[in-house]
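agent> Task received from the user: take the single chain below, predict its 3D structure, and emit structure tokens. No templates, no multimer pairing.
agent> Plan: (1) validate residues, (2) run structure prediction, (3) serialize to tokens, (4) report one or two observations.
agent> Step 1 OK, no nonstandard residues flagged.
tool_call: predict_structure(input=
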Amino acid sequence: MAQIRECKAEDFDGVVVLLRQLWPGRSLDLGSLRNTFDDSLGSDRQIFLCAESDQKVVGFGSLTLKRSLWNAASVGYVDEMVIDEEHRGRGIGSQILERLILWARDQGCSHVELDSAFHRKDAHAFYERRGFQSYAFLYSKAL
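)
tool_result: status=success, residues=143
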């Protein structure tokens, strides 16, 4: 069983391994990622969780708090969620997601939201089994 805990600075390399699985083929700017990771560790509006098994990071999830006029409340937004390919199907994702949801609830959030790419059918099923509903498309524009 994996231990779920808040990430520390020394978890960065293990998290990068997981992000490469989440975003295969994407070029990662490790300097920018490191700065973002380190800045986020000290934030009171964001949480990074790691799953650790045998002293190896095997899962990662992050959630950011945002204010939403639509919900007239704070909303927790799951930014990233990835489990090592060799450790999927063991309940680690469920453990991380539940901890993210509990943290959001403790921060006064009324909802937790996330996005998932169209091709990630297994992820869609995972979230739907946990009560998430699809209700919108996500649009993005690079600046």
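agent> Step 4: summary for the user.
Helices lie at 12-22, 30-41, 92-106, 121-129.
agent> Done.
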